Structure formats: structure tokens, C-alpha cells
Amino acid sequence: MTNPPNNAAAGRASAAGPVITCQQLTKRFGDFVAVNGISFEVAAGEIFGFLGANGAGKTTAMRMLCGLLGPTEGAATVAGCDVFREPERIKQHIGYMSQKFSLYEDLTVRENIRFYGGVYGLKTAAIREKTTALLQRLGLAAERDTLVGSLPLGWKQKLAFSVALLHEPAVIFLDEPTGGVDPITRRQFWDLIYEAAARGVTIFITTHYMDEAEYCDRVSIMVDGRIDALDTPAGLKRQFGVASMDEVFLHLARGAKNVE
Amino acid sequence: MPAVELLNISKSYGTTPAVRDISLAVEAGELFGLIGPDGAGKTTLFRILTTLLLADAGTATVAGHDVVRDFRAIRNVVGYMPGKFSLYPDLTVQENLEFFAAVFRTTVAENYELVKDIYEQLAPFKNRRSGALSGGMKQKLALCCALIHKPQVLLLDEPTTGVDAVSRQEFWHMLGTLKARGITIVVSTPYMDEAALCERVALLQEGQVLRIDTPAALRAAYPWPLYAVRAARMHPLLQDLRAYPAAHSCYAFGEAAHLSLRQPAPDAAARLTAYLTGHGHTGVVVEPVEATIEDTFMDLLAQRQPSPNSAHDQPAQ
Where is the signal peptide (chain B) (predicted)? Predict the structure, then answer.
């Protein structure tokens, strides 16, 4: 391809087919195989649960898909961008949120939105417009000049999620997004996830809450760098003859050898 | 004499109240849970009980010792596992354990029997620096270090947060073993499913006790007729259930939605099924269900804040 398509076109093109594809994606650190030939596809608008025990290789796989870590071998595309050749372009088409990395506590709500809008290359007018819409949708208009550090955790999480969607990415990666909040707030966060998915945003999510695994369209479970199971929650429960995702997870992860 | 007793304990940080007039008692040998999200006051309570923080008001005792007057005595009889990993990352597994034994003027050999089952899982890594351990391993080592002086009361602040389901299950198994040896355990967790593993729990929110009871009594206290509702697609299901005229509340619960009704009706399930089918849902299954502790917790949260949605739509002051 002599003229690479512009970013928006790449984003649109990917919306038709799978938004994430992985074939035999592998990462080795010296002798240690952190991710061992994983293959899967995620469709546009799908809520894809990415589960595994601590040390199973989830974070490494996620870092590769986000363009933060070069794979050793295999192939993968995210929003039509190749993870080997175009890691920088990937970042323009994805959103990312985790408990560890989210908003700046010492900036106000509005400053955070403006900062992230700028990082993602949005024009000033677009940032202004999106700021108003976002504050309104979250009911945070009155808190626009409040320091994020003084907001309740549940609100930080909702704001971080919305900010990660500011540049209208094709995919959002959520790394244990709901830790620490009360059960009502946790479910309200899932309402935001459902709404984003209904708009066509692909959701790639890790969680330690097994009830949240049930809310995903499909769930993959990594064990020792491999994907040992991938199906709908109902399919997985049928496959392992158990009543809950908790039991599916325990069944698979108990056999793990890598305890990082 | 209770092993742990709090009477009207309050504590603020500046103008922010962290704990508001909390009273509770934990019996000797009991496995007691402090259940609540971040900001519920769990860590503040532990810091008061471990004599690391002075309450603004109220009194507290641990193993009969007053947290202010007898603070030195308390430090010898409690084992404390803080929420944040607090061992020495540059010491090895074995060195950390020996250090904590030495601080309490004992030896690893003296009390090894108490930590044996847990420490044996760490033995292959005993020469590894503790900073290089995985989350699950750090947690096990921290538990060993909190136990090595054979405490009467074990205080565990969110030991399973961020830990995967397998390690969580193993950890709770270990707590059961320790309880069987007569150690009083107070453990905090944000995971509602872990509340069911305690003998009694205090449900906490924003520094206040919502309810203290056994898991069975908390489940039984749920006041509304409750149904588990399944259909092919969860998000539209939740939306339609929330709009159902007889609905009191509706929350996702794993593969089902839990719907509580304002009042019991003999044909409630049939009517609800017809309503959902009429709204285009397929695979509709409606069945009465026993409330979980999480149902009760959410109901108490909603009662506390008359309209759950508006309360959560506005940030707290």
C-alpha cells in the first residue's frame, strides 16, 4: 500500500469486519513464554471478557494489543492497524482505562477532559463541544471545576471511562475498571459499558468479579499464556458442566503452573 | 469479654468524616467481616484497632486492652495485614519472616506450626526478594508475617483485593484453618460473595454501619419479593425491567437480573413473563429467588439514599 489510508478511514474500515484479530500471537521474555500463541477475533460492538489468574499473561497480551509492547511472533490487528508495524496508529483508535491509570487528580474535571482531548489530537472546538455533552450525560455539569481528586471513586471511574471514549475509538480496553466501588455504582458502570457497546464500540475488559464475566458477550480464559477456553458465558458453563462462571474459572485456573 | 469492641468510635480527616459513631463487638474466636466499598471506613477502623491512629471520639478495646491506654499490650497480641503490601521488598521471603519473628522476640521455629501450611507454599521462593513475588504470594507471605508471633486477634485489611479467584478461594480456606485454632479474625473485603464466608459481618458505607448480622440473617432481612429474570439479552432486559410498573428495583446479578417487586402477587411471574415477551424478549425465564447479601446491601444503600439513582447521579459533597 503506497498511500496508507487516513486514520478515520482505517477506523471505519475495521468496523465492518472483526475489530481485533489475533493469530498465534506470542511474547517471550528470554526463556519465559508469557503469551503462547493466542488466537481469537472480537467483533465490533462486542463485549469481550479477558479473564485469567494473576500471572496468566493477560497484561502482556493487552499491552501488545494496545501497541505498547512488541510481540515476538504471530499476527494481530486492532481497528485495522497491525500491532507489529503500526503500534502508534493503534493508539489513536483505542481507548484505555484501568484502576492504576486514569485521570489526573490535581486537574479539574474540565481540565482533564481538555488534556485528554488534546492528547488524542481533537480540535479545540471539538473538545469544547464534547466536554459539554459529556458533562451533561454524566450529570457532572455542576462539578466541572472540581478537582478530580475530590470526586467519589465511582464518579472518577465513570469520568475516566467517558474520557477514554472522547476520541471515538473503535475499541476500549478496560483493565479491572470497577474495583473498590459499592455494588450499585459498579452496576451503573456496566450501564455505561452496555451503552457504549450498543453504539458499536468494542469492549475488551478484564475483571476479578466473576458476575461481571456473565455480562460479557464472550469470555476468554487465559491459563499459563494460552487461551484455554473461549465462548459465551452460557457455552462455557455448558462445556464444563457447572452453574457459574466462578466455577468455570476455578476449574481452569487451578491447573495453572505459572504463578508469576 | 469480646475480643474486639468498638464503642461510638468516630474519626475525621480534616472536615471529612471517615468513621461515624461505629459500635460493634467481635466475640473471641469469631470470623468477622467488615464489608464495604472504598471510603466505607474499613482501613480507619483497622488503624484505630492497631493503635496506629487515635479516634476523635469513642473507645475501643482489643483482647481486653484499651487502644489508647494499653497500646503496647495490643501491639503484642494482634497480627495486622495492612491493605497495602508492607513487608520489606528488598528482604527475601525467609528474611521477612525471620525479621517479624525477631521484632516480636520470638523465632520462626517457635511458632512454625501455625504458619506451616501457608509457608510451605512459599518454600520454593524462600530466597526470592519479597518485592518480586506475585500478588497471591505476597499475600500469603504477609499473612505468615502477621501470624508468626501467634497473635490472639488477626486484623486483615482487604487481603484479597486485586487477587484472582483461585488465590481468593485458597486464602479463605486458610482463614478457616486459622479460625479452627481459636484465633479471632476481623477481615475486610469489598467482595460481597466473601461476606457469606464470615460468621457475622458489618455492612459499611461512608463511615457508617448499615447493619451487623450473620449472613443468613442478612439474606432473610431482604424485605421485597425477589425474582431472578433471564432473557437472551441483558442490557435491554435491564432497561425493560426498570420500566416495569410493579418494579421496586432491578440489578444485574451475573447471568440473571434480580427484580424486586413493590408487593407480592400470586401471578407475578406469569405477568412479568407476558410483559417481557410483549417487549420482544426471547428465552424469558422468571423464578422466585432467595436474596443474597449483595441484594440486602444494595437495598440498604438505596434506603439510606431515598432514590438510589439520584443519589448516585450526584457526587457526594
Answer: none
